[in-house]
Amino acid sequence: MSNNPEKLQPRLAKLNEALESGALDQARRMLNRGLAPVDVAHLLESTPPKEREILWGLLDPELHGDVLQYLGDDVQLEFLNRMDAEQLLTATEGLDVDDLADLLQQLPNTVIQEVLQSMEAQERQRVEAVLSYPEDTAGGLMNPDAITIRPDITLDVVLRYLRRHERLPDATDTLLVVTRRDELIGILSINRLLVSDVSVLVREVMQTDFHAIQATASDSDVATLFQKHDLISAPVVGIDGKLLGRITIDDVVDVIREDAEHQVMSMAGLDEDEDTFAPALRTSRRRAVWLGINLIAATIVSIAIGFFEDTIQQIAALAVLMPIVSSMGGIAGSQTLTVLIRGIALGHVSGANVRWLLIRELLVGMTNGLIWAVVVGAMSVFRFDDIRLGEIIAMAMVINLTVATLAGTLIPVMLKKFKIDPALSGGVLLTTITDVVGFVAFLGLATAFYL
Amino acid sequence: MSNNPEKLQPRLAKLNEALESGALDQARRMLNRGLAPVDVAHLLESTPPKEREILWGLLDPELHGDVLQYLGDDVQLEFLNRMDAEQLLTATEGLDVDDLADLLQQLPNTVIQEVLQSMEAQERQRVEAVLSYPEDTAGGLMNPDAITIRPDITLDVVLRYLRRHERLPDATDTLLVVTRRDELIGILSINRLLVSDVSVLVREVMQTDFHAIQATASDSDVATLFQKHDLISAPVVGIDGKLLGRITIDDVVDVIREDAEHQVMSMAGLDEDEDTFAPALRTSRRRAVWLGINLIAATIVSIAIGFFEDTIQQIAALAVLMPIVSSMGGIAGSQTLTVLIRGIALGHVSGANVRWLLIRELLVGMTNGLIWAVVVGAMSVFRFDDIRLGEIIAMAMVINLTVATLAGTLIPVMLKKFKIDPALSGGVLLTTITDVVGFVAFLGLATAFYL
Q1: Are strands A174-178 and A184-189 parallel, antiparallel or unpaired?
Q2: Domains of chain A
Q3: Given pLDDT bands bounded at 50, 70 and 90, which one contains residue A7?
């Protein structure tokens, strides 16, 4: 029978029951023996602070490292901060070098040094090699666990060499062929090894047109490379062409997921590593900054309206209708902004085709501006029995939707040029523009034609 | 030397040059021999319609299928639509069954039937098996290319059997152990095969606690499983436990990326498969729908303001300040909404902890409401020299930010319950609420205290 170990929900329910009824011994047993570390991590991330505290306390210290590596940065740091160097060392024993480096990168330098000091020389060197590269580079992602072979041996020798291992590193789909001086000269896929005649030399069957990643390459570029060529692992080399380690698809999947989360979260001024169950005070403080930035934007908009206070005093209907103009502009602009941000991220948008996009968006803005101008204009005439009011709001709609789509195109392109994250600041900039233009166009036209 | 084949940009620039100078023969050569199919697909997706047309015309027909499989649905359909069954058959020769099924799924049933009719019986059966499952299920993702072995042979026999293949399917990290009746009873990882004694039986070293995916499982569940357990491939079985095929990590990576894009795009009412360079008319039509939905929301807001037309007529300063209250509420609400939508997607949020989140958000909303109420109140007093106005806007801020965070928590939870995509409709719902509450609170309080 096929044995599917994915019966998580009922076990979590039982664990919760045990916790609530105070059967802590039972809960401890279920936590430490009934759940995989990745499931424990998921459980911790799904739990409010107090219960999280209790669960962590019930967890066997030797499982701490295994669980820690699966936690998001925010929750991870919460637990790391209260461990001393010795506890860290116990917890992280047996972790892969790249996972260990990920954890250490979160800690202050003095603690990192302390942990490194207490490691064996060889292990320390391997961890230091990874730590010497920023977290978001190929060097920071790599694991120095590659199996290397020489070009002048037969496949038979390779097979016997492999058989001397107790196990091969995870995601070993290729063996890396290096010279005596550790320069990477080819890769031998396990698939090729399994179907080739065992008497041929590695040199004869190895691939020489492989993807070697520079240690300084950005993690996004690594992700693109893996996706484009359906890679499972790829070697990392230094500028001297010497092999440093390899990157595996599981770490690349994390990069892809985090990049995607970053976009969604930063559109609301949030961090992608944020703990879902962060306490109220910390949450308030973090969110306040973004609210402050938006207050500046809202104040600018309010000042723009202020110029037309007299007009509003005379025709209050303008105040009733004006949010329609600004909100429709905001929606039209954010549609364009979203398409452009994605296009830039996918590498579709470049200097050569921005002009085409600008013209397309101009046409789209004018078309939808006209369509909805007619609808909103008619609605306004019907509601306030005033044809001029309908004409004015219709004109304002066309102006604002056209400006909105143009701003939606230009803002991300310009932010990109200044190396500012368009997902973070594009939205605020855009709605400030569409609000100001919407209100000024509508109230300005009203002032000109009514008064 | 390590041979890195990633020199794409200069080749694309040269190709563009050739196209612009009208050297079509040269461009044709570069397109068909100088670029990998995945790069041609990327080029097509980065090109406005007219140039795209020319490029497609220059592409060798036998490369069409290879290129098509890398295109987004929108662009893919554009080219598929104008091919007849015979052209489709030529284009798709040699594609993997899952990629072929992906392409066919886009076409009308009559065309699918025509293509299937002209296939060999065995290939047809394999494609039909995949087509019988919806695109977004494990069955729709799977490839029937698994290598299967029997439990009662020695590893030596397995190795000799593999050596009879010319190549193994991509991402073959495990061999699937089946009974005579094709029931899946275990998996043998290639790694295990390589390090084990060749004289032992498959049955002795195979894993029996493996992840077998039901063909009807959703693609998101498949993605979660792969991420949690760092899988490279996993077998797919029917309800009878019989092996149907396997899913590989490259297809799962596509699912993860598309899920992430879906969230970002649907927040602006867009489709994740949308062609960045869709023509103006098609783009206008698609976006108009979303603008229409938002117009309904804006009209509701406008009607709410309408109740206070008289108040505004008397104190126009209210119209100047009111967008601040609504916009700050919108921001606070969308921060909560974003955290909740992510929490639900990650499986962190469940019935058990929604209450904790609701209280946390209530505290956050009140805290930030109070902080910014003081700031906005002071600003208003300073600007209009009217203490009562400052008090009123401060009160409205606290009310709106508190309601906003509560709505941001409850909306996605309720939408989820009704199986409505919160990324699509959450934003409109939320801003309608924060706008209405913001305006009504502010203008209502002003009416009560001033008049």
Answers
A1: antiparallel
A2: 8-135 (1.25.60.10), 148-266 (3.10.580.10), 280-450 (1.10.357.20)
A3: low
